Every structure is written in structure tokens, then in C-alpha cells.
Amino acid sequence: MAMLKQLRKGSEILMEMFKGHGVTHVFYMEAVLRYTMLEMEKVGIKRVLCHSEKGAAYMADGYARATGRPGVCLAQSVGAANLAAGLQDAYLSHSPVLAITGCKPSAEKHRNTYQELDHWPLYQPVTKYNVSIQTTDELPQALRQAFREAMTGAPGPVHLEFPQHQGMHIELGETEGGTTVDKRFAQLPPFRPYPDPADLAEVVKQIYDAERPVLVIGLGAVLSGAGPELAAIIDRLGIPFATTMDGKGLVPDTHPLCVGPIGGYGRKCANAILAEADLVVFIGSGLDDQVTNKWSLPSQDTHVIQIDIDPSELGRNYMNSASIMADAKAAASSILPLLTGAHKSVAWAQKATASVNAWRQAQAEIRASDSCPISAERLCHEVQQALPANAALVADTGFSAIWAGSFIELTQQGQRFFRPGGGSLGWGFPASLGVKCGMPERPVVCFTGDGAFWYHLNELETAVRHKINTVTVLNNNGGLGQCYRGIKALYNGITGRSEDLYEYSNVNFAELAEKMGAFAIRVKNAKDIAPALREALSANKPAVVEVLTNIAGDPQEY
Questions:
Q1: What single-letter DSSP state applies at residue 407?
Q2: What pTM value is reported for the model?
Q3: Alpha-carbon distance 330 to 98, whole Å?
Q4: In the chain, N or C terminus with fewer CB closer than 10 Å?
């Protein structure tokens, strides 16, 4: 007599698959998957109730980037549009986020029912895999494939849509389908494709033949964990290297051959070195408009080598003199044995080092300034000095990304840097909460402006409630600093109220944070920044250090 297979509820399958893929936190806005919530509590998966779907998506994004494991966010049907909007940065930063939303069941569709809208198409541009399932029998295979898609190749978000606004039809339904988990898809990268040896020989030849080679470290190298191998290549060759904003810190910023971040948000000294190079080797980076300053750096006639796990990126925007389709760590470890010694262009490396030293010297005075309002340069100096050796630094977009990316140097191999790949203002603070959930043992510092902090200030209550103890450094210049100069130029010679276009009310964020249960300090004098940061880092609760700064500061001057 044949054995009957055990029927499993959808809620049990979801919990077991989450647990099996290393998910420790789920970020959501009520009401969704309530029966799965009960199952998750049994196995210790923390359910982080947020104040908005977009905040939940950003937290899941931060969690995924910090851990290299899938981040999970959930929303009911009516919140699905908000959740989709929150996946833009995860998609553009190759962050493996699983989003699950409810929808109207098929029997209620096309009848103009309450909250009826087809949300599925909203996920098409921001996911690698977007599936609407109708029965619990479909769940095991669809969920396994969602995890595979999120984690393989160039990682990215995925979406599953369940019928009934809370997804209850899938949760309460039963199936014979199993919950087998392939652990390869629980941690990035699941596969490490190695390069063709013949291609590697050509890459090494071009590097040694070049007069002015530069290495550029991108996000793919970070996801691959290629830091030790790349540091060894740089030290053996003795050639300068730059980073994209997302590659920052994989090899410490203070390495003598590091010229810093390049591109539209990069340092002038780094861009100048890139402009002069006759060979640029990009490892784990697409050559988009921000990385290349609208495809001007390097010039189109410069020899370019690309090493990327995504073959569609090879030669997309620049003709390649050599292309390597491989995992960054696998490629770097394969290149190392082929290196025969230091590169011939010692003077080139010395020039790169001198250019960075000159860049630092140009801002030395203002980094030590006691001016009032406080300069953002001084604030960055103090944050750099205060960052613990194992800290994660999370920056918001715009000037916050430039200040943090260029002016707060990561000095230790263990430090990490995160910023929004899609440039969504307000991403930084909720994302930092996700980073902290993924790295509970590390100090997590968020560098953000007041314009960005306003977006998700309410998630400070989430941090307090769940004891997510980050430190938020609030660069409060009273408005939108990146817009300030452009608006002033717009009004040049015109009588009017230019401040209406960039200025916010003078609000004491420290008082608000204290009322929400956080530790908070408001800093008006530069000499008080360092002790405030020390207190915040040791507060053992969510902390906000609000620093009143000069809105006229411009990081793109340097």
C-alpha cells in the first residue's frame, strides 16, 4: 500500500523556507501573512513591524547587503505599490530581496472591487523574477525559484504575489510539496565561475604593457568578497586603484595607492588619474553614467578591461580590449599566480599617491575648522576619527553620499560602506536598521541629511521598539544642500524667495528623537562632535547625533 504524503500548510512551507535560507528578520507593514507570522515566532525569526512599506523594503535591502543572504519584506495588497517603489534601489544595487504581497483573488477581479488594482506589473521593472501564484501547490517550486533567481548571477530583488489581500489563500492552503532547501542559495555567491586561462593571460599582458594602468573596484567585488585577493594584486603590482562608490572600503581608503571614488560623485583627484590612464581594469562594475561621469572617464579611446559575472555588462558602454566573464574573487585569485613582479611604472604610482595627498591637504584647514555653523568637512573628519574598526557606514544619497563616500575614509579592512544605488532620498536611515539587524555585533553609523531623515523619521520608533541600536549622524543644514547652489544660481539677479525652494523649518530633531525613546544630542559647536559621537556609540540604544552645519558647503569643490 502506497504511503500517503504529508500535507503541509503554506504558512509552514514559508516559515521553513525562510529559516532554511538563513532569514533571521522579516520586515513588513500589517496586515499580511498573519499565519506565517505565528510560524516564524516558533523558530525565532524576528518580525519587524515597520511604519511604511517603503521603509520595510529599505530595511530588507540593507539586511541583504549586510549579510549576503536574502532580505524579506511583505505587504498586503493595498500596500503593494508602496513596496514596489522601495525596491528600486535594491534592484540597481543588485541586492537579493524577496518581496511578497497580497492581491485580489481571481473571483473578485475585474468587478471594480474595493482596492482592486493590478500591482503585478509594477514589479516588472524592479525585479529579476515576478510571479503571481494562485494555489498552494505552486508555492514550494515558486519560492525555491525565487530564492535561486535572487541569489544567482548578478543578484537582485524578486516578487511573489499571493491571492487575498493578506495572502491568506496560500497560507491556509495545503500541499504535498516539500520544503527542501538548497543551501547554495542561502549565501552570496552561490557559484564562482572561473575565467578562461587564455583570457587571463591576455589581461596580465595588457597590464604589464600599459604605461599608466589603474584598477577600479566595484560592487561585484564586494559581493564576491574579493578584498584580500585584490589587495594582494595591488601590492604585488604597485599600481594605483580607484573605487566606485559601491566598491569603497573593500581595500582600505587609506591604502597608499588608493585614489578614492571616481565618477559623478567622486573625487577630482581620482577622476584626474582615471583621465590620464592608458588602461583601466574594472572589476565587478558596470560602466554606467555615474561611474564614468557620463562616459567621459576614461575616454572612449582608453583601453578598458572588464571583469564581471554578468556577461551582458562586458562591453556595454565601452569597447573592451579584454573581457572576463567570472566571479570577481575567482578572477582575482586566478590572476595572482600569473603576476611576475612589480609594474614598471613606479613614477605613475608615485604621481597617484601625490595627487591624493594634495587632495587631503587642500581640505586640511576646513576639516579642522571651528566655524559656526559647523562645516560638513569637519563633521566628516570627526566621524572618520570615531568610526570603530569593525563599523558599517551607511550613507543616504546626494551630498550625504558624496560627503560620506569621499570625505569619511575607511581605514580598516573590516569596515563596510553602503549607499542607495538608485539615489532615493531617505533610503539611508531605514536601510541602516536593516544593516544592523544583519550585523548585530557591529557598530552601524548612518550619515544622512535632514531632508533625507524627514522621509522615514517614524522608523526611529521601530528602532527603539526592536532595540536596533544604530547611530544616526544627522547633518542638519536646514534644507536640501545639494539643491542650494543651483537654486541660488537660478535666482541670480532676480528678486524673490529662493529659500522657498530648498529650505525646511528649524526643527530640533534631538528633542523629537528623545521623545521617541532614543538617545539624542544636538551639537552646535565643532569641539562637541567627538564627545557626542563617543556617547552615542556607547549608548546601548538607538542614537541620533544632530549636528548643525552650513548649507553652503559643497563636496564637489574637491
A1: I
A2: 0.96
A3: 27
A4: N
